Amino acid sequence: MKKKIIGILLFFVGFILVLSVLNATARPGYGDTHSSIGCHPGTGVDIPTTSSTSIEVNISGSFQISITGTGPSGFSIVVLSADDNDLFTFNQSIVTDGGAGDLDSSSGTIRTVFSLTAPDTSKIYTIIIIVRDSASTPAVAFQRFSVNVGAATVELNVLGYIFDHLNYLLGGIAIVSLAIATILYQINREKYTRTHGILAGTSLILTTINIILIVPNAVATFDTIVQFMPLRLLHIILGIIGYTAAIVAFVAGLSGHRTRVPGFIALGCWGFNYIQGLIFIFAGVGL
């Protein structure tokens, strides 16, 4: 039994590490729609565009993006607080079928033009524009645009990458640390008790820091969270359960009481949330 548990935990650690590497360069092969992922059932929404997805503009310059979206009755094209959208000024944030800004009078098609003002900092930014239906769990299609402001050049910025992905990196390190602590405890609890405590404590500290860093970002992107509330709610509930279990395990360990259940609960909840968070990132609606 012990060997089976260790084998499962080793697979889990390897899986998290592989996801950490692949997320640096990979995107799922879903094109401009992620309805086939399963979190947003497909109902025929689409977002073909006549604008180039690579745009060059001067610092604080103005430009336009033409968007055509198709979908069922009640669908809309929206600009959410995702990617670098908040750094640009849009003339409109939502266009409904037949509403203001829709240049196509036919039902089931929206044709609109977004007028934008670029940031005052030279950099390569990413804009995402989404088309969705009116269901409670909406079907979603999206189009990303790479906007080069001020003829910026691509540079390797390791420190910038770390800060841009800090929540993701802290979460991954915390999960791997807790998993290794659990594996060592399963192998020989007497020999690795101290190491287990250090690694598990490190995991709890990193997770606490991560929570503190996430809260301001979550408040700033509250409208995005509301749009995907069912999945976000599950993420929040599991996060609370995992964090509570980790604290219980930590306090129990300090008091000398040996129990494995809270640690397994924390590892399971955090592991699920980490994978779900990666899906949000791939879909372009992550924090």
From TrEMBL:
Keywords: Membrane, Transmembrane, Transmembrane helix
A GO term for molecular function: calcium ion binding
Spans through the membrane: 166-185, 197-219, 231-252, 264-285
GO cellular component: membrane
Protein name: Cadherin domain-containing protein
Originating organism: marine sediment metagenome
